[in-house]
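INFO  loader      accepted 1 record
INFO  loader      residues=248
INFO  predictor   begin
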Amino acid sequence: MKVKTILVSQPEPIIENSPYNQLIEKRKVAIDFRPFIHVEGVAAREVRKQKIDLSTFTAIILTSRNAVDHFFRLAEEMRYPIPNTLKYFCQSEAVAYYLQKYVVYRKRKVYVGTRTFTDLVEIMNKYKEEKYLLPCTDVLKPAVPTALDKLGVNWTKGVFYNTVISDLSDLRNVYYDILVFFSPSGIESLFHNFPDFKQNDTRIAVFGNSTVKAAEKAELRVDILAPTPTNPSMTKALDDYIAKANKR
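INFO  predictor   done
INFO  writer      dumping tokens
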């Protein structure tokens, strides 16, 4: 079946010429964006209950923009003056760039991974003497603590924000040719909102092994997969699939 409509379970990209916009122009498809999950900040009193004293850490591990936002939010709420000596270990260039919203980049010690958490761990291996804080969500990928424990560094997990299922009730009678997911939480949100969901002719696109496993556990048929050697990004995977599907 041909592809005309796509729903991406994430916020719309803020950059003007995003790969999704290029896909819309190239393949003449309609793409909507709707977060299936969102985050809600944890109150300072809840962080204190986790026995976290921000002043005791020498380095912060930042894996996402949410981690950046909520670390600085809580630092302000807890009246913690962030020292210039604090080291920032960012999972990607995008996260490091976003860090500039809060600090003067050239005056801070910032270390940047290539893309994955494994890349960042390789950099952290050179700084094992640091005391690390990992601001994160209540839904943390198991691979992250496993990698940190294996590295043997002194680190503490801080739940600074929670992952919450979004209300999608207004989409109940809306049909899309492709649904795109990037996390197991997105799959969970789909069935939380629509427990009677039947895939039928809807194509399911997933990013990452953990999302594949969640889709299969939910008995969904995975039609589009990324990353792969030929399709390293979701937009490339969608482009490849649509090119074939719309030729029929």
